[in-house]
Design brief:
The chain is α/β, with parallel strands linked by helices. The protein has a single domain, classed as NAD(P)-binding Rossmann-like Domain (Rossmann fold), CATH 3.40.50. The chain has 13 helices and 14 strands. Helix 2 packs across helix 13 and helix 4 runs parallel beside helix 6. The two termini are 17 Å apart. The C terminus is likely disordered. The structure holds nicotinamide-adenine-dinucleotide (NAD). The site of nicotinamide-adenine-dinucleotide has 29 residues, from strand 2, helix 2, helix 6, strand 5 and strand 9.
């Protein structure tokens, strides 16, 4: 299949592009490199040293004999999206290309605006391009389990049957997102649902849980292919932060009581889920929703398992509860359904001591690169400033996109 991977330089996008390429799909990547610009803005960096996107793709070509086409550009640029569809005629678009950090969207007004405008406009441009140029193309869109919030009832996969005043209907599941970032995903879901109903497009909205683990079979096969390892307070998820803290000999910092429970998925299962989704497109006119996670953990349970494995590795860890910068329930019911991807054939890797040990190994190997001052949270949900710092994605992304396009117009 001809597959366009939007956001193919990122944490999920790069291993997915390699996985699809290794499994015989014809892959092209579009990415505006905003994630790398944000590292500079925040004064952080991947714990693993990562090669440039060009070097990654060239190394993959040498090792596998398979080409991955590359376009540096922003999905917010309508001409770029139009040209991509005209030149590539993709049969599936996997859309990872969004600002994906909740804390980033809560730094200040400009960060919230950038996140919502960038995410919503990029998705709209894809939908309009599909409508005009590739109506049978399948959009596989990354949403998040965070769209649902933590309702006091079971979370269904996208839709819920409701009885009201003697009548019943199957309707989109109610959403209670917990940040301006999560809200952008809800806005996307509504736009996609509308485009499917109105234009007969086909889409899969994957409400993904928090992704842990860092490498896949392909990314660990060569140093130039290594995937990024985020551990800072803005982009690093709890497991990664805890592993880096344990490796550095500082306390594992748990937000509040640590009872917050969420859905999690191993990166190796993320890439497989995307493959399963693109290989089983829904019929025209349908927005299929699947909850893409495999298990539930609370923050304190995660701290505990990292603590225990770190102790076995003689790292002398400790756990400290700190004020929760987020506004969220710390003690709540959480039961979300996740059977659709299993029904399609997913065989989950579940989180165990072996995976934690491999993450701790990686954290120890690269601990000299850890910038510990970036691990403690600064953005606070209760006080988001009107005037604040300027986000890198506003400043750089459009410029980079324009420069790249004028330098290499025919790079596809
Ligand atoms: N990582 C997780 O735990 C997780 C969990 C749930 C959902 N998701 C979703 O999966 C997707 C990928 O997440 P990730 O962790 O790989 O994020 P990431 O930030 O590592 O990757 C996103 C990539 O998209 C690029 N990008 C961003 N905006 C763009 C634009 N307008 N045009 C072109 N490229 C753009 C970035 O440069 C980056 O390389 C996101 O949509 C995210 O919301 C991720």
């Amino acid at each position: 299949m001809r597959v366009l991977v939007a956001g193919g330089d990122g944490f999920c996008g790069w291993p997915t592009a390699l996985h699809l390429s290794a499994n015989g799909h014809e892959v092209a990547i579009v990415d505006n490199l905003a994630r790398r610009a944000i590292d500079e803005e925040l004064g952080t960096d991947s714990l693993t040293p990562i090669a440039s996107l060009q070097a990654r793709v060239e190394r993959w070509r040498q090792l596998s004999g398979r080409e991955i086409d590359l376009e540096q550009g922003d999905l917010g640029d309508p001409q770029l999206v139009h040209d991509l569809f005209t030149e590539l005629r993709p049969e599936a678009v996997v859309h990872f290309a969004e600002q994906r950090s909740a804390p980033y969207s809560m730094i200040g007004r400009q960060h919230a605006v950038c996140t919502q405008v960038g995410n919503v406009v990029g998705t709209l441009n894809l939908l309009f391009a599909m409508h005009e140029l590739a109506p049978s193309c399948h959009l596989v869109k990354l949403g998040t389990m965070g769209e649902y919030g933590t309702p006091n009832i079971d979370i269904e996969e996208g839709y819920i049957e409701i009885e009201h005043n003697g009548r019943s209907d199957v309707l989109p599941y109610p959403k209670q997102p917990g940040s301006f970032y999560h809200l952008s995903k809800v806005h996307d879901s509504h736009n996609i649902f509308f485009a499917c109903r109105t234009w007969g497009l086909r889409a899969t909205d994957l409400n993904q849980g928090i992704v842990y683990n860092v490498q896949t079979q392909q990314t660990r096969s060569d140093p130039t292919l290594l995937n990024r390892f985020d551990y800072d307070a803005v982009f690093g998820t709890a497991i990664n932060r805890f592993c880096v803290q344990a490796a550095a000999g500082v306390p594992l910092t748990v937000y509040g009581e640590g009872g917050q429970t969420r859905g999690f998925i191993d990166l190796r299962d993320t890439v497989r889920c995307i493959e399963l989704a693109i290989e089983t497109p829904p019929p025209a006119g349908q927005m299929r929703v699947m909850n893409q996670f495999t298990e539930q953990w609370s923050v304190m349970q995660l701290a505990q398992i990292v603590y225990e494995v770190a102790q076995e590795m003689e790292l002398s860890p400790s756990i400290e509860n700190i004020d929760n910068p987020r506004v969220e329930l710390e003690d709540h019911y959480y039961h979300a359904k996740c059977s659709k991807l299993i029904d399609l054939g997913l065989q989950p890797h579940l989180l165990g001591r072996e995976t934690i040990a491999s993450l701790l190994d990686e954290a120890v190997r690269h601990r000299d690169r850890a910038r510990l001052q970036t691990v403690l949270p600064e953005a606070n949900w209760r006080s988001v400033p009107y005037w604040g710092s300027e986000p890198a994605i506003a400043r750089d992304a459009a410029l980079q996109s324009a420069a790249a396009r004028s330098n290499s117009p025919a790079s596809m």
